[in-house]
């Protein structure tokens, strides 16, 4: 069976699991060839299908995300290592990077709170010349993934990662102050019904934040000013229906608040100054 034939069969098998079944099959096949999807489509479709392909398709049929199967995810022009210790970076979160680069392209010191794979911090550092950044996460396993990404992207000299938990007393000691604060905190309501590929595989500690999804904002927002230089900016990811509630928390803490929407027009980031 050729790669093209195997992809067609896999797309049919995955149709009930994924809205992007053909794309999923192509990405899994490209992974086995050690190629990009474009290279696969141009050069390998008539090659024999690698023997490991059915096993990968079976994993995807069990709702495991493609990014965890391949161990890679593209984000803002970067290819990042991802593992089940980290959330999978999503295109919607690129809204935060775009806002940060537009508003503070000259940021010298950047911090990413809840860094996960390091996606937000590394994307900003890759476009900010000699900026220096710190990423923190309460998961030591996530910090290890972020460190691997910094090294793979040639950004290790600019980025350092620490295991810290903003719920713990003294968590910010020694960090200093920053021109730019990035944060994609847990913000999903505890009762939210999520797709199986999220609920069964992505880390719950990075997703859920109490009955209204606001618990981490309540803890974190009052602490942000102490991390910010004069004229600094904080960019927070929010859920599509959280602009008013999170904005009110920020206003109560003395911040001016601006909203940024993602490409689908949904509320996605709040800018705090």
Description:
- With 273 residues, the protein is α/β, with parallel strands linked by helices.
- It has two domains: 3-62, Orthogonal Bundle (Helicase, Ruva Protein, domain 3), CATH 1.10.8; 85-272, Rossmann fold, CATH 3.40.50.
- 37% of the residues lie in helices and 19% in strands.
- The chain has eleven helices and nine strands.
- The chain has helices at residues 3-13, 21-33, 37-44, 53-61, 66-70, 94-103, 119-125, 140-152, 196-199, 215-224, 243-252; strands at residues 72-75, 78-81, 109-113, 132-137, 159-163, 178-183, 228-237, 257-261, 267-272.
- The strands form two sheets. A seven-stranded mixed beta sheet has the order 5-4-3-6-7-9-8, with helices on both faces. Strands 1-2 form a two-stranded antiparallel sheet.
- β8 and β9 (267-272) form a beta hairpin.
- α2 (21-33) packs across α3 (37-44).
- It is globular.
